[in-house]
């Protein structure tokens, strides 16, 4: 049985339309203009991943929220769990960009890191 | 009153303003950066999603991460950074410009040889899209909501209607979904989302957020707070179809109905404004119709990527240098948007240079395997560009070799019929 899908490559701004054919266990990618597209197409079918961005509460800073993100893409079905793991996280200023806020979030092996410096005020 | 003297003053401390200021400071000019808010970075501080910098740095950064690259640079280069400063008046004289600005430290009188405007754009609001009904609490613009969620951790409502299928609306929809909105619906008058296809995938399809194309809000219902909206289907010309009205109950309405260059201040000092882009008319180095006054970033036209906006700023920095060195201009070659081209920059070519001309345009049709043609005033083909897809939602960038334009008076850009 073969199945055809079309997905849009999000690896670079070019946005190639990937035509993907799945024949039982094999994934074939067409329409990509670079190797990144092929890798993305296969990954998107087998194990789609995304960078997750959100905020956590921060005390003594200029804003009440600190923007954070996963250091690496995480499996798509883990996104909600990653976000809910951040619900009760509270950090204190000062924070430096890239600082680890949560280690191994939702058992993904990926850390949550700060997106910006936040000084103590 | 405090007096200052600079070679270049950049108004606006967002990504484009930072880029132009840092590049000119690196070249050795005495640069000032004026920012109305109390921190640099512009709109990027609220854009916490990733995907910035794929062209410039070859990796996907978040908004704050992208901004910090330039902020750190600006702080080490000895740029005169004026925060909390509002430009009240600009006077243009030959070879000198005078700025009067207001700050908590008093009024500042700033003399400069060149000015770069980098004040970005504003969001279109509810009074510009002819929504009927009452005006209760609970109607926001998308950027405002982004700010509320990402800086203050405030969710504006639970049952949310988003109007408009642009990039900002989609990104806000994803944040609202992940941060706990119960019901979400996106409506827009077009047949398809107007934003970038990659955002349709990442923000909407990934999470199955419901949307309804060819639909607009006819009326907002509610006395104190939004209670709902009357939605109506529209035809291809966005004309409401009678009898298709339905009530959608919600407590919040978010408008994401487009961005417009904030060119009011430039108009006031006499710069010519392009009715297509709503930004100033510029030459190939982003100089407006006023000598020594430049415009960069989303003030010129709305860029899809901050990388492209920053590129416009880096090109402008070279133009400022040319102006300060008093390099002579050649004759003007006019640049005209032709068939199926909605907007095109630059508007004219006038400097002598050997670098390629970087042009940005937006088509108004959707086409696969499209050819874009550059023709001179006699209709002769100068160059053809191939694109696998062109869509109104995607800003295209082309490079034009300068030698192609020798002895031309006017060039037109078209999307080919075949």
UniProtKB/TrEMBL annotation, chain A:
<dbReference type="Pfam" id="PF07892">
    <property type="entry name" value="DUF1667"/>
</dbReference>
<protein>
    <submittedName>
        <fullName>DUF1667 domain-containing protein</fullName>
    </submittedName>
</protein>
<dbReference type="InterPro" id="IPR036593">
    <property type="entry name" value="CPE0013-like_sf"/>
</dbReference>
<dbReference type="InterPro" id="IPR012460">
    <property type="entry name" value="DUF1667"/>
</dbReference>
From TrEMBL, chain B:
<dbReference type="InterPro" id="IPR023753">
    <property type="entry name" value="FAD/NAD-binding_dom"/>
</dbReference>
<dbReference type="InterPro" id="IPR051691">
    <property type="entry name" value="Metab_Enz_Cyan_OpOx_G3PDH"/>
</dbReference>
<dbReference type="GO" id="GO:0016491">
    <property type="term" value="F:oxidoreductase activity"/>
</dbReference>
<dbReference type="Pfam" id="PF07992">
    <property type="entry name" value="Pyr_redox_2"/>
</dbReference>
<dbReference type="InterPro" id="IPR036188">
    <property type="entry name" value="FAD/NAD-bd_sf"/>
</dbReference>
<protein>
    <submittedName>
        <fullName>NAD(P)/FAD-dependent oxidoreductase</fullName>
    </submittedName>
</protein>
<feature type="domain" description="FAD/NAD(P)-binding">
    <location>
        <begin position="6"/>
        <end position="312"/>
    </location>
</feature>
<keyword id="KW-0560">Oxidoreductase</keyword>
């Amino acid at each position: 049985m073969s199945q055809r899908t079309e997905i849009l490559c999000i690896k670079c701004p070019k946005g190639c339309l990937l035509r993907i054919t799945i024949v039982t266990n094999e994934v074939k990618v067409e329409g990509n203009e670079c190797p990144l597209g092929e890798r993305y197409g296969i990954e998107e079918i087998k194990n789609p991943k995304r960078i997750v961005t959100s905020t956590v509460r921060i005390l003594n800073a200029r804003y009440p929220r600190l923007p954070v993100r996963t250091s690496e893409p995480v499996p798509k079905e883990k996104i909600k769990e990653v976000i809910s793991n951040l619900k009760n996280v509270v950090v204190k200023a000062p924070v430096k960009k890239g600082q680890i806020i949560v280690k191994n979030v939702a058992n993904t092996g990926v850390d949550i890191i700060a997106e910006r410096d936040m000084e103590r005020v | 009153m405090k007096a200052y003297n600079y070679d270049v003053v950049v108004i606006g401390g967002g990504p484009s303003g930072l880029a132009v200021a840092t590049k000119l400071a690196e070249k050795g000019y005495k640069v000032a950066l004026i920012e109305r808010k109390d921190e640099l970075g512009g709109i990027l501080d609220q854009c916490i999603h990733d995907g910035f910098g794929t062209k410039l740095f070859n990796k996907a950064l978040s908004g704050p991460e992208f901004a910090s690259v330039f902020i750190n640079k600006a702080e080490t280069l000895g740029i005169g950074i004026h925060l909390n400063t509002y430009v009240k008046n600009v006077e243009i004289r030959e070879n000198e410009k005078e700025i009067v600005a207001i700050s908590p430290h008093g009024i500042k009188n700033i003399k400069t040889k060149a000015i770069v405007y980098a004040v970005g754009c504003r969001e279109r609001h509810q009074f510009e899209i002819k929504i009927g009904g009452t005006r209760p609490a609970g109607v926001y613009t998308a950027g405002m909501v982004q700010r509320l969620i990402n800086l203050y951790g405030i969710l504006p409502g639970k049952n949310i209607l988003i109007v408009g299928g642009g990039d900002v609306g989609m990104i806000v929809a994803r944040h609202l979904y992940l941060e706990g909105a119960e019901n979400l619906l996106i409506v827009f008058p077009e047949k398809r989302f107007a934003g970038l296809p990659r955002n349709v995938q990442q923000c909407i399809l990934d999470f199955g957020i419901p949307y309804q194309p060819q639909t607009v809000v006819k009326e907002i219902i509610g006395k104190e707070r939004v209670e709902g909206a009357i939605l109506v289907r529209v035809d291809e010309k966005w004309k409401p179809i009678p009898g298709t009205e339905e009530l959608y109950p919600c407590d919040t309405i978010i408008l994401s109905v487009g961005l417009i260059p904030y060119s009011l201040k430039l108009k006031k000092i006499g710069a010519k404004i392009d009715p297509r882009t709503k930004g100033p008319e510029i030459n190939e180095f982003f100089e407006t119709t006023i000598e020594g006054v430049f415009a960069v970033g989303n003030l010129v036209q709305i860029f899809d990527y901050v990388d492209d906006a920053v590129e416009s700023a880096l090109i402008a920095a070279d133009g400022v240098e040319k102006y300060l060195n008093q390099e002579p201009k050649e004759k003007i070659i006019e640049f005209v948007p032709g068939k199926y081209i909605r907007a095109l920059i630059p508007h004219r070519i006038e400097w002598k240079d050997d670098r390629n001309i970087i042009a940005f345009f937006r088509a108004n049709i959707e086409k696969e395997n499209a050819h874009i043609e550059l023709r001179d005033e006699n209709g002769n083909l100068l160059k053809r560009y191939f694109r696998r897809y062109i869509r109104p939602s995607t800003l295209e960038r082309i490079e034009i070799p300068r030698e192609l334009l020798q002895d031309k008076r006017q060039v037109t850009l078209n999307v080919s019929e075949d």
